[in-house]
TrEMBL record:
Keywords for the protein's UniProt record, in alphabetical order: Repeat, Riboflavin biosynthesis, Transferase
GO biological process: riboflavin biosynthetic process
CDD domains: Riboflavin_synthase_like (cd00402)
The keyword Cell inner membrane is annotated on this UniProt entry: no
Pathway assigned to this chain's UniProt record: Cofactor biosynthesis; riboflavin biosynthesis; riboflavin from 2-hydroxy-3-oxobutyl phosphate and 5-amino-6-(D-ribitylamino)uracil: step 2/2
InterPro entries: ATP_synth_asu-like_sf, Lumazine-bd, Lumazine-bd_dom, Riboflavin_synthase-like_b-brl
Keyword Cytoplasm: no
Protein's job: Catalyzes the dismutation of two molecules of 6,7-dimethyl-8-ribityllumazine, resulting in the formation of riboflavin and 5-amino-6-(D-ribitylamino)uracil.
Enzyme class: transferase
Stated name of the protein: Riboflavin synthase
Domain Lumazine-binding: 1-96, 97-193
Species this protein is from: Aquisphaera giovannonii
Gene Ontology molecular functions: riboflavin synthase activity
Highest taxon listed in the record's lineage: Bacteria
């Protein structure tokens, strides 16, 4: 479980094929102690397990399903990634509950500057739009954001300067894909209502 509050902008140091999956070596700038083997880390919003660690560097593995549903398969050495350690009991929840289970990818359609803020509009498969509501929560590349507009085939968000500076969202360009996780509460409500035939 995560909060969607990115801790650091990491870097892909190595990406190697492992059968149908991939193994990534990532760097965490300023990490004070190595991550324990087995710890969960959100990488661009995708929950992955630490399988090796040495100083600021650590390895994670992504299987075929992860590579299919996320933008991680397109990450190359030198690319930046959002990193967040898992939530501990008693931590403040400044974002929203994020599982690290990416639902789909959305494509950035447009971005424009509005003062110090930036407006980003994404296109998303219409089948996911039923889970999004204006002013609701969404995780975009693992960043907890508030939805602005929700359309039949996409949504928009507004980003403050801090978010632009410390996450990959400041680097996105039109045509780039971002990992999307809909609010898990919306998923549970939808399933409960579907069970009632509504």
């Amino acid at each position: 479980m995560f909060t969607g509050l990115v801790e650091v902008l990491g870097r892909v140091e190595r990406a190697a094929d492992e059968g149908a999956g991939k193994r990534f070596t990532l760097s965490w700038p300023g990490l004070r102690e190595p991550l324990p083997i087995g710890e969960s880390v959100a990488v661009n919003g995708c929950c992955l397990t630490v399988v090796a660690a040495d100083g600021e560097a650590f390895d994670v593995q992504a299987g075929p399903e992860t590579l299919l549903r996320t933008n991680l398969g397109a990450r190359r050495p030198g690319d930046r990634v959002n990193l967040e350690r898992s939530l501990r009991v008693g931590d403040r929840l400044g974002g929203h509950f994020v599982q690290g289970h990416v639902d789909a990818t959305a494509v950035l359609k447009a971005r424009r500057t509005e003062g110090e803020w930036e407006f980003l509009a994404f296109g998303l498969d219409p089948s996911w739009m039923r889970l999004l509501v204006p002013k609701g929560s969404i995780a975009v590349d693992g960043v907890s954001l508030t939805l602005v507009d929700v359309d039949p085939d996409g949504f928009s968000v507004m980003l403050i300067p801090h978010t632009l500076a410390v996450t990959t969202l400041g680097l996105l360009r039109p045509g780039d894909a971002a990992n999307i996780e809909a609010d898990m509460l919306a998923k549970h409500v939808e399933k409960l209502l579907a069970g009632r035939g509504t």
